[in-house]
Amino acid sequence: MKVFLCRLLPLSTLLTIPASSWALTSVESTTILRLEQRDAAGSKKDVAPLTQFLGLDLDRLSGSSLSLHFYGWGRLDLAEKSYNTDQGGGSVTYGYLQYRPRDANAELRLGRFFVHEGIVNEQVDGVGARSDLPFGLAISAFGGATVHTVNLPGEESDGKGDGLFGGRVSYRYRGVVEVGLSGVYESAAPSLATHAGGNHRLVGGDLWLAPHSAVELTGHSSYNTETSQVAEHSYLLNVRPVQELTVSARYEEERDRSYFYTWALFSGAALDPADRSRSIGASASYRIRKGELFAEYRRYKRELGTADRFGGEAKFSFADNRVRAGGGYHYLRADQSFAISGTQSPSYHAVRGYLMTDTPSYFGALDLTAYLFKEKIFGRKSAWEGTASGGYHLTRALALSGDVAYGSNPQFSDEVRAVVRLTYNMAYDGKGGTK
Amino acid sequence: MTTISRRLFPLILAGALFLLAGCARMAALPSLPESHPESLAVGQQVNCLECHEDQQKGSLKSFSAFSHTAVFVRNHRFYAQSDDRLCASCHKRSFCADCHTNQVEMKPSLKYGNRPDREMPHRGDYLTIHKIEGKIDPASCYRCHGRGNNERCISCHR
Question: How many CB atoms lie within 10 A of CB A335?
Answer without folding.
Answer: 18
